[in-house]
Specification:
With 349 residues, the chain is α/β, with parallel strands linked by helices. The protein has two domains: 121 residues, NAD(P)-binding Rossmann-like Domain (Rossmann fold, 3-Layer(aba) Sandwich); 197 residues, P-loop containing nucleotide triphosphate hydrolases (Rossmann fold), CATH 3.40.50.300. Helix content is 32%, strand content 17%. A hairpin with a 2-residue loop joins strand 10 and strand 11. Helix 3 packs parallel to helix 4 and helix 7 crosses helix 8. It is globular and about 55 Å long. The N and C termini lie far apart (41 Å). InterPro entries: DgcN-like, DgcN-like_C, DgcN-like_N, P-loop_NTPase. Pfam families: DUF1611, DUF1611_N. This is N-acetyltransferase DgcN. It comes from Rhodanobacter umsongensis.
Length: 349
């Protein structure tokens, strides 16, 4: 019932999507739905939320049957709670979607395939289930051998500072310039946006670098693989996945992502954010294990919590500090970072 095989999502249950919000605790809880609505609006028929839900994506509020009638193929569970579990209302809504003729996909730690009611509904309606946090079998152990192609990895001072948005913005900007570029997803939201990828936070630790090698194989077209980063080398909870990504990506280029209004590591008030120079250098040192020639090419700031004038000042200050182009990918674009990436130092692979 779930997808196993390669990293590509099966086309017969993909978009158009009905995005499920339910009744989330806060805006961060719907970041999966928000990310898909932002980057793939043409795939989104509407949103499904409970009556007491105050959050919105600005999409039409429609029910399961209406969504199916409007052409939706799949209900995407776009919300998450602490622990990534399926509350009773999510289970009931998933069953209702299946009974309305929709497939159901989710990126929760608790799997759709492990819920008997959901599985039974999928079977009786001939619908598909897909658990994004379910790595395909056969992922190899990383080997660190050099491979053809050019790769960029986004890294962060903390979790949830904009690594996925930055990577997708870079893909868009490079393609607009006629440069082959492909976003390589490593988290559930990115997988839904890209239609392919590997959920590295669900990969057994020994295989993380191999998983990244697997989703960014050798390429010979002069283009770039743009690999979505996860976690932070300075986050006590998630540094392991960050290190595995640095080794498996063998990046030629790094972009450092940062939220300037944040005062401590997400979820850990006793740990302040790292100093920017120290953070960037630590990522470069780790990346040199598998690519000694790696370079930093830019800094991406999430300035959504700052007024426009302060956002520009923050970019100027941090750009001067690190001697790198610094931009907010959503508010300002990434053209200066792309200019640096495509400078002569990177031409010719």
């Amino acid at each position: 019932m779930s997808n196993h095989g390669d990293a590509t999502l099966p086309a017969h249950w993909g978009p158009p999507y009905l995005l499920y919000l339910g009744n989330p605790a806060d805006d961060l809880a719907i970041k999966t739905a928000r990310g898909v609505a932002f980057w793939r609006p043409e795939w989104c028929v509407g949103q499904y939320r409970h009556r007491d839900c105050a959050l919105t994506l600005g999409l039409p509020d429609i029910g399961m049957a209406e969504a199916r009638a409007r052409g939706a193929n799949t209900l995407m569970i776009g919300t998450a709670n602490a622990g990534g579990t399926m509350a009773a209302d999510i289970v009931a809504d998933a069953v209702a979607a299946l009974d309305a003729g929709l497939n159901v996909v989710a990126g929760l730690h608790q799997k759709l395939r492990d819920n008997a009611d959901i599985v039974a509904a999928a079977r009786r309606n001939g619908r598909m289930l897909f658990d994004a946090r379910d790595p395909a079998p056969g992922i190899p152990v990383g080997n660190g051998r050099p491979r053809a192609g050019r790769r960029l990895l986004t890294v962060g001072t903390d979790c949830s500072v904009g690594k996925m948005y930055t990577t997708l913005a870079l893909e868009r900007a490079l393609r607009r310039r006629g440069c082959p570029a492909d976003f390589r997803a490593t988290g559930q939201t990115g997988i839904f946006v890209a239609g392919a990828g590997v959920p590295v936070d669900a990969v057994v630790a020994d295989f993380i670098s191999g998983a990244v090698e697997w989703i960014s194989p050798a390429r010979n077209d002069g283009g770039w693989d743009l690999i979505e980063g996860q976690g932070s080398l300075f986050h006590p909870s998630y540094a392991g996945v960050s290190l595995g990504l640095l080794h498996g990506a063998q990046p030629d280029a790094l972009v450092l992502c940062h939220e300037p209004t944040r005062r401590h590591m997400r979820g850990l008030s006793g740990y302040p954010l790292p100093e920017l120079k120290r953070c960037l250098e630590a990522n470069l040192v780790a990346a040199r294990l598998t690519n000694p020639a790696v370079k930093a090419v830019g800094v991406a700031l999430n300035t959504s919590g700052l007024p426009a004038s302060e956002a520009l000042a923050a970019c100027q200050r941090i750009g001067d500090l690190l001697q790198l182009p610094c931009q907010d990918p959503v508010a300002m674009g990434v053209e200066d970072i792309v200019d640096n990436l495509l400078a002569p130092a990177f031409r010719g692979g």
